[in-house]
Amino acid sequence: MLQQLIRQFHFTKAERHGAVALLCLAGLGFLAPVVYRQTYRPIPPDHSDFKKQVQRFKTAASSTNATSVATMFEFDPNTASVELFVQLGLREKVAQTIVKYRTRGGRFRTPEDLQKIYTLPEADFERLRPYVRIKSNSQPTAPRWQPKQVAQLQPFTFDPNTASEAELLRLGLPQALVTRLLRYREKGGYFFEKTDFRKLYGLREPDYQRLEPYIVIARADKPIRPATYAGGAGKANPLEVLDINTAPATAWQQLPGIGAYRAQQIVRFREKLGGFVSPAQVAETRGLPDSIFQKIQGLLRLETPPFRTLNLNTATVEEFNAHPYFSFKQGQLIVAYREQHGPFARIQDLGKIAAFTDHAWLNRVAAYLTVE
Description:
DNA polymerase, domain 1, 44% helix, mainly alpha, two-stranded parallel sheet, two-stranded parallel ribbon, 4 domains
C-alpha cells in the first residue's frame, strides 16, 4: 500500500524542475506591480499654458475697466443707447435692462432713479451719478402697449344679454371688459335690469352713466329670476328641492348662481364620485364659490343613495385613480396589499395598510367601497 502511494505522488527530476520554474514565475508576477509602483514616478501635467491664459484674461479685464473709468462723460439715461452705457463701463446685460425699462414706459427723473435697475451694482451707480444729466425736455420712450383710441363714439340701443362682441366694442367698452361680459353670459349669467349691468366688474361709473339711456333688455326670453336674488322676492315662483343624485344639469341651472357651466361641473363631479352621500359634498365641486353653495344648500336633498361603488377585492389601479377620493399611488397600495394578504374581509381592513393613517379620509371613502 505504501509503495503504491509513493508511486502515485512521485515526481521525476524534469517534473520537479518544471514545478520550481512555475513557482519562480508566479513569484515574479506578484512582485512586479510592487516594484513598478516603487520605481515609476508619473510626470505631473503641465498647466503653464492654462495659467498664462488666465493671466491674459485678468489683464484684459483690468484694462477694460481702466478704459471704462478713463472714458467717463456726461449722459442722459433716458436717451443713452446700449453701446453708450457699455462705453461708460456697464456690463452689456445691465445696459440692456436699462433700455428695456425705458421701452416699457419707465423714465428717470433724478439720478437716484437709476437705483430702480436692480442689476446695477451700487459701485457703478456711485461712479455714474456725477455724470448723469437729465434734460427737462427728454421724453420717455413710448410703451409697447397703448390704449386703443376711439375716434368717435356713437352710442346706440343695445341689449347686454344679446349684443355681439363687435357691438360692445363700438360702444367704447375695453376689450378686457367685453371678454368678461361674454364669459359671464356663457356661464349662464343674465342681466335682468339696467342696474345689473352696472354691477359688471371693471365697468367704470362714467361708462355706465353714458350707456344707461341706451340699454334695452328684451322681456320675451328672459329667464325667471330666482326668489333668493336681491329684489326678487315675490316676483318668482318658489324653487323646487333637488335630489342631488338624480337631478339633471338643466335642473341645477334653476338654482341661484348656477349657470350652464357650473351645472355641468356638478354633474361631472357626481358621475366621477358614483353619487353623493351628503349635500355637503356639492361644495367640493371645483370652481364652485362657497357663497353660492350657501345660497343653494337649503334646496338640496339626498333622496337616492350612491349608484356606483368600488369593490376592494376586484377594482384595478386605474379604477381607483379615476375616483376623486383616490390617487394612483393609493390604488397601487390597495392592489399590492390584496395580492400579498388575500381578499379584504371587510371595508375596515383598509386601515391595516400602514400608509393609510388618515382616519377622516378612511371614513369618507368607506361609503364608496364594498367587499362583495
